[in-house]
Amino acid sequence: MRVSMSSLAFFLLSSISTTTAFTISTTSTPIAFSTSFRSTSHATRTTLNSSDNNSAFTAFAERLEEDSLFDDNNNDSSDESVMSSWQESLEELLDPKTSTAKKQILLSDLMGANEDIRNDVVEALKERKIDPILTPTGKKLQDGTRAVARQVTTDILPGIASAVQSSEGARKLSEDLPTLIPKIGDAILEAVSTQARKQLELLQGDLADPSRIPNRISKQTADIATEARNVFLETPEGLAGPEYKVVSKGDGYEVREYVGYTAASTSMSKVGEQYALDDLTSSGAAFNAIAAYLFGANDEERSLEMTTPVTTTSLGEMRFYLKKNGDDDTFPNPVAAEDKLNEKGAVKVVDVAPARLAVARFTGFVTDGEVARQKDALLSALAIDGVEIDVPHGAVVPYCVFQYNPPYTIPIVRRNELAIPVRANGEGNPDIKNEWSSEGGELEEEQDVEAPSDVE
Known about the structure:
Layout: H1 5-18, H2 51-66, H3 76-82, H4 86-94, H5 100-111, H6 114-127, H7 136-165, H8 168-208, H9 213-230, E1 244-250, E2 253-258, E3 261-267, H10 280-294, E4 310-313, E5 317-321, E6 348-352, E7 355-362, H11 368-385, E8 400-403, E9 416-421, H12 430-435
Antiparallel strand pairs: 1-2, 2-7, 3-5, 3-6, 4-5, 4-8, 7-9, 8-9
C-alpha cells in the first residue's frame, strides 16, 4: 500500500489537533518521504521536541510496518490488487476495535477516494440500488435478508400450511411422546438437579470465603456480555469446536481437513424412518437430550462445556462436539443411554474419524429446501473444479449440516454450513467409507462430514 506525502501530512496535522503535547520541530531535520517504504529501513525521519512524543510516533511507525502497510515487494499493479476499497476502509474506520493511529490512516485514504465514492453514489442513485455503496458487512446483511425471505416464502410458510392440512405430524407426535417424555424428562430433571447442587456448593463456598465473590460476579458479568454479543455475531464467541485446517478454497466453498474428535450423539429418526430438517419436534427433543447430558445428566454428574457447531447428518443424527478437559480425554456415560438402535431421546458418546470435507456456508434458517439448494450448488462447484467426492459412483451423496449459533441469534447473521466428504489425491478414506455405509449397502451420510462420527 502506498502512502503519499499528503496522507502522512494529514495524519500529522490531525495528531496535532488531538494531542496537545505532540509537536513537531520546524527547525529540525526535515521530514523525508520516499515513494516506496521498505520493511528493512524507514524512509521517514521525524524530530520531536518531547522524548515521550518521539516514543509515541516511533511506536506508531512500527505499527504501520507490522500491519504491512508499507511493502517494498509490491509493484504498482500488486499494490492495486491488495488495496482496500473505500467501503472496506469505512467499515474498518467505524469499528470500535480499530486503533486511533490506524483510523487516522483510514480517514486519509477515504479523503483520497472522493472520486470513487462519488462514482459509486451516482451509480447507486442511477440504478436505484444500494449495492454499490454497501460495506462488506452491509452486503452480508443484505444477502442474509434475501436468504431468510426466500426460506420463509419458499420453505417455511408452505411447510406450515402442509402440516396444518396433514394428520401425519400429529400421528408421529402421539407415537413418540410416550417414549420421548420419560427419557428426555428424566435427563432434564437430572441436569437441573446437578446444576442446583453445584450452585448451592458455590454459595456455600462464597459464604466461607467472601473474597471469591467479586471474581465470580466479574466472570458472570463477562459471560452475560458475551451472550448479548452473540445475538448479532455470525460466529459465537467463547465456544470451542472441532479442530480443522483449510487446505484449499473454491468458488463459494473451502476444503477442510478435520481432526478426529469425540461427540455426544442422539438420533432424530428411527430405523427406516425418513427424517426431515423441518421436523422441529424431533430436532428439539434431540437438542434437549444432548444439552441435558452436557449439563449433568451423566453418571459422573459432571458439567461439560457447550460447544459449536451443532451437527445434523442426512441420516437424522445430531451431534455435539465434546471438548477435552486438559489431558483428560475421557467423558462420562449418559444417563439416558441407548437401549436400542436409533432410539430417540437416547444419548451415546461416539468417536468421529478424521475427514476431508468440502464446506459451503449459508445464512438464515436450516430447512430441507435450503439444504437441497446448497447441496446442489456445492456439488456443481466441486464438479467444475474437478474435486472428487468420496462417495461410490451412483450412491446418494451424504452430507452434514453445521449450525453455529444459539437460537436467539438473529437469522440474517446466522452461520450455517453444509459439508460433503471429498477425496484427497484421488484416494478415498476407508474408515470414512465404512462409517458412511449402512448395513443395507446405502451410504450413511453422516460420519464423515464435519468430523464424521455419527453412525452406525
